[in-house]
Protein 1
Amino acid sequence: MIKNVLRIFTLLAAMTIVYFGFEKLGLNIPVINLQTTNAPSLIKTEWTEEKVLMMINDYRQKKGLGVLTPNEKLSMAAKARLAVLMQYEDSLGEITGLTREEAVEMVGYNYSWIGDLAVLGFFRSNDLTAFWTTQENSRQTLEEPNLKEAGIAVVMGGETMSIYALLGAPGKVKKATTRPSSPASASWGGPDLWVAVNNRRVEFGVNPLRQKDELCTIAAIRLNQILDLGELDAHAGFEPTLNREDLKWISEKYNISEFLVSGYSTPQESVAAWENTLGHKKLLSGGEYVWGCIYAQNKFGVAIAAY
């Protein structure tokens, strides 16, 4: 009984935090990059729950799957889960007790299937569904044929946004779920490394790189390949990625190079390693490169540069 009361209190408190805003309540929210993003754009785009759902549905329709309709109960649960993720970094509900399933059940949503998608500190100019599809668990959730409804929570923060989506199929008999979204945190990420690279390029007297979203797709895929391996692959996955049917057009349009780095404590140390490694200094001093994108997580970095 007491345990249930505490969980109800947590749910209500979390929803209040999202509704009124973290800053207005005077909470000190840690900056956590649960999923890595690339460089910020100067163009700010406002993201809403409706826009995120539209993107999810566009992706599903292209796959021949049914569109999802908004569900108010799932939205309430999503707001609570996003607050828990942002304030407590509690992706599994181990700290607050507010697991994904608990949040859904406490708002009275009966489901036969439930899954979730999460991203924190994601630059708003990026392709959200393209990023989710580079992760096997998230891709499976997006492509689950049984899904019918969705609840989405969005919190904007400057150039970045944090999103949590609950996708479900109503029913009384629980059949299946995916494992909860639990992206790893990083002390520094793609945006930090992007700034460090462009700062060094300016110091070398060449133009800073400009972001291209299609290059970010390649960087995201490559980073996830490397994270799965747990080590650099000596560019073994680069050519196969470029030769994918859905990505071929990118290498036909641009001359593309890849630069990898791992194991350094700061973006500046990573840049210094590139500068002092044969063949990698061109990322920093090569005036031929015009566009680029960088993804980084857990001390692994992937830079894609092109002209």
Protein 2
Amino acid sequence: MLYTIGKVLFMIYFWIFYRVKTTGRENIPSSGPVLICANHPTALDMFLIGVKVPKRKVHYMAKAELFKNRLLGWILKHLGAFPVSRGTGDVGSVKTVFRLLESGKMVGVFPEGTRTRKRDPKKRKAGIALFALHSGAPILPVAIKGDFRLFRKVELIFGKPYRIASDAVNGAGKTYSREELYKVSGEIIDSIYALIEQ
């Protein structure tokens, strides 16, 4: 209920303050597990994507610090977010991602790990590759273009979903080197920026 109310409120907010152009919504799977991977230029990204995904709830990782405020933490929880302690190898949040995907849910992640306006090859998280490789869930690349200045154009592009090549997926029993994980993370980020540059 609160998710629906929040979605409507953000829909109105984006309609009033930004000129949002959305393309590729037909690429969004209507059911089954999905790993949404997007660039992260602003703090509004998760809300914009959530508003534009029809009839499905998107679950996001959010930094644990935000949940220290009881009211904000309560709101985020009901909007589908869950806490992650960055830089600590948070096993609990990793298990949450796999549990959500295994139950057919949508999980949104930002492969670069933090907000960034321009692509930085150094910003890529190995954990994103781990989610894709071990879950086998399709990846939905999403690109956000625009500076989010009031009343300016913002473009949201949903690419075509794809899976990591079958020869790279070996299930939960397989271990991967850090180099292998960074390589896959880089490929995921490439798919996002290909949408931005098209």
Protein 3
Amino acid sequence: MQAVSSLSPADPAETKAETTQGETRVSETVSLAEKLKSGSPVVTGWSMLAVPILAELMGRGGYEAVTVDFQHGAHDIASAREALAAMVLAGTYRLARIPVGDNATASRLLDLGAQAVIAPMINSVEEAKAFAAATKYPPLGERSWGPHRAAMLDGLPLEAYLEKANRETVSLAMIETPQAVAALDAILAVPGIDGVFVGPSDLSLTLSAGADMDRDGEKTTQAIRTIADHARAAGKIAGIFCMSPEKVMEARDAGYTLMAYGADMGLFHAAASTARKACTV
């Protein structure tokens, strides 16, 4: 396969594969929804900084997906718009996480080209229904029509985008509290909710009532396993944050198909530190 130029877009007809320059790209012939629901693993990088080219570089560096973080990251609508477009150049699946309860931003990010939206702190069926309504068109939801940029990025006429939107848009509810775990099956059963995504930090914090943040504690570990088991039983997607490559493998073995590992801030800092330490002057 011909190497991807640093200036040229990836060919969406190609499958994700290593090139002669070590860059990779992902096939748009298989949607993110199809890939995740088939059980194939996807590792997503995490875009915290409002620097769109970093999202593209994460894709070119090997990540098959990148998530733009609106909850704890520095992104605004302008940087997210450019980051989502930059991901297309890298042939990377495009995800975004919204702030807590901000379903209007979920709709807007989908209009700008996100293929999946992650909603934090979904603790009830009512919250799950409101989120699903904002991300799916009628009759499944109440998403307002206006995906002009999204259709452009996909290279589709608007009619073709509408035909696939509800089927290929991935809506993931974050499970981060005891209340959410208790309502897990009901949340998974909400029409338009395609799966769940675990935030181990908040989950451990809330399970301990704020006493500690032990992502590897017994309660947290058991909850993480339970969430994956119930998602699989419901035929839904299970995703999770991972703090190390070993945790990515553990999550995959537990039944998760979407694993987040590696944020741009940490990756850049580690690369800068390694580069400077290599200079012994």
